[in-house]
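User: Here's a chain of 282 residues. Predict its fold as tokens.
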Amino acid sequence: MINHKTPVSGVGLGLRRALMGPLSQAKSPPFDFMEVAPENWIPMGGRLGKEFRKFTERFPFVTHGLSLSLGGPEPLDFDLLSSIKTFLREHDIRRYTEHLSYCSDHGHLYDLMPIPFTEEAVHYVAGRVRQVQDFLEQPIGIEHVSYYAAPGSQMSELEFVNAVLEEADCELLLDVNNAYVNSINHGYDPKEFISGLPGERICYVHIAGHFDEAEDLKVDTHGAAVIDPVWELLQHAYREFGVLPTLLERDFNFPGEDELFGELKEIARYQQAHASRERKLG
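Assistant: Prediction complete.
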């Protein structure tokens, strides 16, 4: 069993290149750690490399991979993993996470595809996660993804996620927006889903906005503000597991500094409120 300790604390923000200029000018940005997709920064040098180094020297960093394809049929890309391992060491990255999905089959599919929720898939994916952890010589976190079809399922999403976590003995990246989106699209209670996860394995949390395609179809986009039901799910996670490091994802439609920082401060307010409540109860 993993010896669990969250790699970061407080409030986080995903670093995107469009944000580098504004964030470098901000005197007191309201976040404590940052996250990048390593594939977007490898290889990197010159002026951009120097600008990136200023951030990694100022803030703790975690990484969230996009293309390892843990559930895919192709062999694991150890050339990519070697580059990631070097990147993690060069920038003192606190944790590497990936999606519980696949994105390649004789070529890159440019999307995160759902893994069938089957016992066979549990063994397959868990074995690949263990290979990655052995190669990187550190635990990794896997994120339960938003999905829009569940082909060949023999168990629930929650059963599948928990089985992979247990067999791989890895950490969990909890995404409360994905839990909300999936609950609407597939008709389950998102609070029950979150409560059923192993809190001791959570390394940190994602929160984000999404797109309303229809009343019963939500699309995970990271391109909008976080809505009230998702904020409530974040608070539910805190009530279940205690205050967790929480990172805001925003990939496009970047708002102004006031709105962006306002969402980060909202995370901090919830963290402080729940920490205060825990102290009173303790």
